[in-house]
Amino acid sequence: MGIALGVTALITVLSVMNGFEAELRDRILGMTSHASITGYEGTLNDWKTLETPLKKNKHILGWAPYVEGQAMINSDRRVSGTMLRGILPEYEPKVSEVATNLVAGSLKELKAGEFGIILGGELADYLAVIPGDKVTIITPQITATPAGILPRLKRFTVVGIFHVGMYEYDRNLALINLDDASRLFSMDGATSGLRLKVDDVFMARKIVRDVGPDLGGDYMISDWTQAHSNFFKAIQTEKRVMFIILLLIVAVAAFNIVSTLVMVVTDKKADIAILRTQGMTPMTVMGIFIVLGTIIGLFGTLLGALGGILLALNVETVVPAIEHLFGVQFLAADVYYISELPSKLEWSDVYRITGVAFILSILATIYPAWQASQIKPAEELRYE
Fold it and tell me: 190 CB contacts (<8 Å, ≥6 apart)?
């Protein structure tokens, strides 16, 4: 049971961490991009000329221009900082999942010159606005007036709300039309760059490097592994550390096998001595206890693997049930990146965990088995 609990815990925790990593990657890339192209000055004046070379690369599934900048957003007495992103409604679905995560309105309502805005759900709740309400955008760009130099202000109408389930974007992102953003940030029709979507996110770096020479100019190309590398490296490091920590549970269970077999050997000394006088060799005695410990380890490992697999596949059902039963919330949306506990079972993890647990179980049998093989019949049967 000790080995079973250890293996179950290991499989479940690593599956949750795999799911956490995959979910974060999908949500981050669903709202940002797999790769991006921009000029060396941080702007792109000729994004349409890049469409021809991009179409020739079969690994690039889509692209979309964008304008991005920091701004303040005001509604009545509430003010919040936000990342303002200008998009083209007809291009944006090619590179992001925002269109499928709209809970009100649509991207088509972001029409040039009408100054509509789509807010993240948490940001809309904070500002206490719904579609149809007005908000004021304040940008760092300045405007010279007879009264002096003032920041640029523009009134926008809320035309939609999205919810991606990731607090960073739901609370801090607002979308407007690309032309409106270019005017608001005084970019004279330029864009911040092009966002790309590729067919394989793990090959994004190679794909953008291959397309670079075909662009015919000096551009800065980056991919998601550069923008979020430290974040995902931290998750990988945490997974390795968690594996080592939880492996100690299995090690403790294996140590229990040692203590159990030592007690069995102590209890069966006379029986072992009698078998030795009848011709049983020390190696046979040792083999008996190794088989006994191996059977304990095998059944414990198999039971733990079964429990871990079942729990890992049903975490998304079990956890909400526990939260509802005890009235608690394990992942608060304003603290963690995501509000639900995901799980992704990797069979390679199952094989690795069960293999290590079984090997530890076998190693744990060696000392007590050797101790049993060293029993001397004459000494043990002296007082029988």
Answer: 43, 44, 45, 182
At 191, the amino acid letter reads T
Mark 187-203 as b/e (b = at least 16 C-beta within 10 Å).
Answer: beebbbbbbbbbeebee
Q: 258 vs 193, 270, 360, 365, CA distance in Å?
A: 63, 20, 11, 6
Q: Does an H or E element contain 249, and which? A: helix 229-267
Please identify every stretch of the chain with a pLDDT value under 70, giving residue numbers as ranges: 142-151, 329-340, 383-384
CA-nearest of 55, 14, 68 to 246 is: 14
Q: How far apart are CA 205 and CA 209, in angstroms?
A: 6
CB 196 within 8 A of CB 36: yes
Q: Rounded to whole angstroms, what are the CA distances from 352 to 212, 253, 289, 291?
A: 40, 17, 25, 22
Report the C-alpha gap between 113 and 154 in whole angstroms: 12
The DSSP bridge partners found for residue 157 are 116, 134
- Whether 172 contacts 32, CB under 8 Å: no
Q: In whole angstroms, what is the distance from residue 21 CA to residue 353 CA?
A: 19
Please give the structure tokens belonging to residue 165. Answer: 């389930």
In whole angstroms, what is the distance from residue 143 CA to residue 149 CA?
Answer: 6
3-class state of residue 2 by DSSP: helix
pTM above threshold 0.70: no
pLDDT tens per residue, range 261-290: 888 888 888 888 888 888 888 899 889 888
The Cα-based distances of 53 to 62, 166, 217 in angstroms read 12, 34, 12
Could you give the 3-state DSSP secondary structure of residue 335? coil
- DSSP assignments along 256-306, one per residue: HHHHHHHHHHHHTHHHHHHHHHTT--HHHHHHHHHHHHHHHHHHHHHHHHH
- Which residue type, as a one-letter code, is found at position 357? A
